[in-house]
Amino acid sequence: MKLSDLTIESIKEFISGDNQLTPGLSGPNILKLFNKVGFKDVYKWGDGGMPNSLSRNGYVIEKLYEINGTKQLIKLLEIVFDPRHFANDQNKDIKVAVGKINPLLQQDGYRLDEIDGRYKIIGSDLPDEIEVEIHFEEIQAQIIEQIQNAKYSIWLAVAWLTDKDLLRELYRKKKEGLSIRIVVLDDEINKKYGIDYEKFFETKRFKPTGIYKNIMHHKFCIIDLKTIIHGSYNWTNKARWNKETVSIDNSRELAEKFATEFVELIK
What we know:
This protein is 40% helix and 19% strand. The protein contains eleven helices and nine strands. The mean pLDDT is 91.
């Protein structure tokens, strides 16, 4: 995240709180704030106070220039605009503050957006941060948790789908109004041990293709176009007792890539 000199000068009082829009910070608390992003400065009581005897805003400006162009600047702004930062000052309205700083940040191509109750820096040059969880045990429980947390859509491409517990959770979400789309292999296992998927969900049965009867062997699920569940785990009863792996990745960029493949499957 790289800000222009003018933007840095314009946002300094959002950090210190001197513009009365964000919580006001004393010198020691400003140092604590910047120490959260990697600095190790100490307030010198009775000996100039701030490092190099700078004013509070002078220190803010100096440190903003030092972290400009780094992830530390993103982290700093997200701390300042964290609802918990505003919790001890009921006179400050975080939405008002965001509304005031965004026009300044947008001059450089950034903005603060509220995502799941937290404000995040959004910008075209920011890499997509990927959160990955790898699970080897209790995989079914991990999948159920992700399904239960879904708010909008669940797209599933899996060779075999016979786990009634997982199917039950999907059906509950369908009843809540979510978009549930399924791609499964068109074979005897799903016919014998699965269910009449089409009766409950938007379903595509994928027939083996080519002279070698190649099958659709995917095992991935896209939730809300931001979370992907994938790995060796088939959504079957037998898989619960196998040695399996599942990865749960939170990444909009990765989700869109998986979604592109899913759309190709259902064509």
